[in-house]
Amino acid sequence: MGSAMAVACARAGAERTEGPWFTVIGIDLPNAQGRLRIDALNRGEFPFASTDTTLIAETSAAVQTGNLTATDDSSVLSQADVVVVDVPLDIDFTATTPALVLQPFERAIHTIGEHAKPGALVIIETTVPPGTCEHIVKPILKEWATKRDCSSFLLAHSYERVMPGEHYLESITAFWRAYSGADDHAADACESFLNKVIDTERFPLKRLSSPTASETAKVLENAYRAANIAFINEWGQFAEKANVDLYEVIDAIRVRPTHNNIRQPGFGVGGYCLTKDPEFAAIAARDLLGIGPQPFPMSELAMKINREMPLHPLALLEKRFNSLRGARIALAGISYRQDVADTRYSPSQTFVEEAERKGAIVSCFDPLVAHWDEMNRAVGFDFAQCPDVDAVVFAVPHREFRLIDAATWLAGRTPVIVDGNDSLTNEQRALFQRAGCEVLSVGRGIDVERRPT
Amino acid sequence: MGSAMAVACARAGAERTEGPWFTVIGIDLPNAQGRLRIDALNRGEFPFASTDTTLIAETSAAVQTGNLTATDDSSVLSQADVVVVDVPLDIDFTATTPALVLQPFERAIHTIGEHAKPGALVIIETTVPPGTCEHIVKPILKEWATKRDCSSFLLAHSYERVMPGEHYLESITAFWRAYSGADDHAADACESFLNKVIDTERFPLKRLSSPTASETAKVLENAYRAANIAFINEWGQFAEKANVDLYEVIDAIRVRPTHNNIRQPGFGVGGYCLTKDPEFAAIAARDLLGIGPQPFPMSELAMKINREMPLHPLALLEKRFNSLRGARIALAGISYRQDVADTRYSPSQTFVEEAERKGAIVSCFDPLVAHWDEMNRAVGFDFAQCPDVDAVVFAVPHREFRLIDAATWLAGRTPVIVDGNDSLTNEQRALFQRAGCEVLSVGRGIDVERRPT
Q1: In this structure, is residue B289 part of a structural domain?
Q2: What is the ipTM of this complex?
Q3: Which of A421, B212, B359, B377 is in Cβ range 3.0-4.6 Å of B325 for a Cys bridge?
Q4: A244 at the B interface (CB within 8 A)?
């Protein structure tokens, strides 16, 4: 997110005769990974895998224009009028009760307090627990202003609503933003900054009353999404047994404006955001806001359901094979989302771990990923022909999978096909069946094609 | 619903030179209530309280034109080419496990099978558990066709998506419809009928593969709504303690197309549909479809949360007064929804029952209801001045409440004011505070107006 935001800021106003509004310096950590990203950016390359060709071109343009560079030297903070903070703030889910991993974030705020120009605008863009600006960032910045005996910093909060994929950069610059300031002066300064970076004529800004309000807005947005994904899961499983195609049903429901956000059954929830953000408010209540434990029954249940979702397609296979011991499974798709290469907290990981624990032999394929860092294993990319397996599980609706021509691809093999995430078209599933494969679908009854007689 | 649908059908095609498409006979039960409704309709009056002036005028027009009458004589079924079924199918929540109350519905289907014209189109419009057409209606109709040795009936399912209130009739004729047939012939006949009654040019029909699919669609729509109401409840309670105005936050979130269905905190869920429909699929799995118990964790939790929601504003008062014993509470709004008079399963009922159980003395006011049938008590309608009470709880955002001028209305009294359902404007709440009242809000921190310093 930090890299993409840096590019967005560096290209803001590039069409003006006076040139871009800002000179942007990206700061990363002085370690091996940080160094790789810094060097990539300074060569004019976007430092992460991306399918967004605009983002890639604009990165190169900004570096060439000379108003985008990267460094691990925090002292450059002293030159900045605006500091945008995209430092991760994680949750440790391995702890007995989920706990905030605050240190890296707090260290970054200390670094800003130590080096930033007196009176600089500090915008927190990281998704944080509600109360973070008020109870963590503000005291640290105040402490440094006192220590340095300088004018205090302007503290604002404005969260991103990016969508990774082909329109990543545009999802920053051409989308609605909410923001807030610790005081009116900071809110005004943040508004003025966002007006330069974002197309606020088409996407008007929304000012909220306090940083705690806009921090809440961000985690609520992701909790809403997570809850709706979890909600539809039980209806997908019902549809499988009731011999209904829930995707067809959902198409009929989504025409209603009050119901157009309804989600569809899938393989599970992954990525960096939906897997943790819904937890932030509960943790904030306990650890940050001093209001004591707050119950979040729907949000908590949703996270649990979402985590366990990939076990359902596995259960379909286990039921089919009686036992998974020795079953050879090809898993098609390991990223957490279609058409992106991001494998962080992917539901495919849950699937593979549980399948292997039950004795299955799993091979993985993904057109966008060559190495699965989190699982430390190579990912097959030659998926041109069906591998010699007992089952093929499609976990992600990558574009490439919808191009598979069943008969050619199978070449006579007849593995069980699991469409785990609406990854195949109706026609593909029918062709797989015609070629002799048994087809199981998440969210669809086995013979929904057949009209009840 | 049956009465409104009868008017919609009777007025379909009224603008044609040939006149309306259909002659409509409404059939009700031969009991006292049914008789009252039948007589009202035959006088040209819509037989329920309604704020829809169009519906009232069109009822009168249809009766005058002579193509809408009502009767309790089921033998008129023999004249009908199309039978639309709007007979209630309820759930008995007082049973150990929620159980279907099938008898009245089954009796109606038997009556249709006994009397209807051979080959007539029977459209089930009642919200029913998935599988009802397939496993209940179809066998009964088949049984009668065999018994009568006549050609079989055409069975279709098409559910309503009406919205009670000022545009009730329009919500039938100018809105999207999904439908299905037990076979293609029935589906075709249903499509042709709906094309006459509904503006399908603007709101195209959506045919689903089976009655079980469209039955599922209907209950899923209401379960989705119920789940989203339950979801936001916990965030409203968090906001109250975190000193955030969740309504402000939600305004900022709803601009996102993927999040525009997000709900806002409120007083609870009532009415005939959202309180029971989410339960239908679980019951159907167990009792109708033969697929065994199916878990619906999110939907079940949502119903539980929604039922208990009115206890939260009561808890706010209990905390404020330490005890509710002897506390005099005026409850403003007893219908289940703003600007309607329908009190069925109203959350206000839950509030009153629990408040009185805890020793409070509750007086009720509603601009649209004079007598609360379910609670068998008179409802005050003189709400022109604040009654002499310790607290006034606004439970419904009726239009009339937003016209209250705080200082005049209070006339020097200073009860605690609870805005339980975003019933008051920001200005009203501020004026109540200025007049000396303590104001508590569901979904808002106590001093959200004050910016943190």
Answers
A1: no
A2: 0.95
A3: B359
A4: yes
